[in-house]
Design goal:
The protein is an alpha/beta fold. The chain contains eleven helices and seven strands.
């Protein structure tokens, strides 16, 4: 986690006073909202859970922020884009955080196609729809910041997570492309790639069988950081306006390792999986 002076953090918050966050009713989305909150910060909060949104709004009000909750599923792309455009027209838009997501774990061959579709629709197309709506007003003002929450799963290629890996790899590729496309208009793009952390993502997890469920539970059980820890690291990183954000050191380490020698990295993953299958 990068430490910035309080003066720099105050200046950063002044530049990010009009914020939309998807997946804001709980977990990382809520934690990001709380971390960004303060007087004069105006939020548009999007999630399926009306109850969770109301709780987040109350937390932000305690910190002096105004928040407008909108209960919707990000798979409703038309409605999502309408909400973002209306917020931007009324309040302006400095920061969009695409944080809505679902956890889908299981081997590629046995994961039901509806789970594949769910992962791609929520994790990837939710980001695409959100970015499409936010880009025009940001380009017009020649400022703004898009933050897409992906995952280290976008590049680790761990077996047993095919649908999730694919959906998050799409978010990574989308963000890299947008960073180049939007550079002439001074619009920053950041893709966040955390490893596992304690969050409510596991509660709605889709798995095709008990074995996959146990594997996923083991990954979450090993996580030591909370949503609040990850949110603090992300917000501390925002002033850099750089493309890649790795809230955990292990994510950055794997990123460097794989980029240095992709074949060697993937051989290690294959060998590890062979041993795991043989031992089961």
């Amino acid at each position: 986690m990068i430490a910035y002076s309080s003066r720099w953090r105050t200046a950063m918050k002044q530049d990010l006073r009009r914020v939309i966050i998807t997946g804001a009713a709980s977990g990382l989305g809520r934690a990001l909202a709380v971390e960004l909150a303060g007087p004069e910060v105006v939020f548009g909060l999007i999630d399926r859970s009306e109850t969770g949104l109301a709780e987040t709004c109350a937390m932000l009000a305690e910190r002096g922020s105004i928040a407008t909750p909108v209960a919707l599923d990000v798979r409703d792309a038309g409605r999502l884009q309408q909400v973002i455009r209306e917020f931007a027209e009324h309040d302006g838009l400095d920061l969009l955080i695409n944080c809505a997501g679902v956890a889908v774990f299981g081997p590629a061959e046995s994961q039901p196609l509806e789970d594949w579709r769910l992962a791609v629709d929520v994790n990837l197309f939710g980001c695409i729809a959100g970015c499409q709506a936010a880009i025009p007003p940001m380009k017009e003002r020649r400022s703004g910041h898009l933050v897409n929450v992906a995952s280290a799963a976008a590049f680790t290629a761990l077996p047993g997570m095919a649908a999730y890996n694919v959906s998050k790899a799409g978010v990574l590729a989308l963000s890299e492309t947008l960073a180049a496309e939007l550079a002439p208009w001074n619009v920053a793009v950041t893709v966040v790639c955390p490893t596992f952390f304690q969050s409510n993502l596991k509660h709605g997890m889709r798995t095709p069988d008990a074995t996959s469920a146990r594997q996923a539970e083991r990954f979450f059980a090993k996580a030591s950081l909370t949503s609040e820890d990850v949110a603090k690291a992300i917000v501390a990183d925002l002033p850099r306006r750089e493309l890649y954000c790795f809230p955990m050191a292990d994510a950055r380490r794997v990123w460097i390792e794989k980029n240095r020698d992709p074949e060697a990295y993937l051989r290690r993953i294959r060998d590890w999986h062979r041993r795991a299958v043989s031992a089961s």
